Amino acid sequence: MKNEEDLVYRLRKRAEIRRQIADRKSVQEGKPDRLSDLLEEAANEIERLNNINAGIDRNTDNKEYSMGTEEGYNDFIKYRNRL
To answer: Closest Cα partner for 81 from 55, 58, 59?
Structure first.
């Protein structure tokens, strides 16, 4: 069960709710809701950063990290482990 106080959960839930509102123009036209997409993108990035912070990057397909290359990430982990 997800903690309803969790920011990632709340962002994703808000995106889900926006996409279900029948009166929204994007819903009526069958187009993507850009704000909902942005909410989900933010939730994914927060989750990815939390995973990196915990030492678990689940995005194995992409070896580039926002802090640089995989080599830079590995150097960061080595440095962090020395502390």
So the answer is: 55
> Taking the model in full, what pTM does it have?
0.59
Answer yes or no: are the C-beta atoms of 59 and 66 closer than 8 Å: no
Closest CA to 42 of 70, 4, 18, 9: 9
Angle at the Cα of 47 (from 77 to 31), degrees rounded to 5?
Answer: 140
Mind listing the pLDDT tens digit for each residue in 40-83? 999 999 988 888 877 765 555 454 444 556 676 777 777 777 76
Q: What percent of the chain has pLDDT over 90?
A: 41
Buried b (16+ CB within 10 A) or exposed e, 54-68: eeebeeeeeeebeee
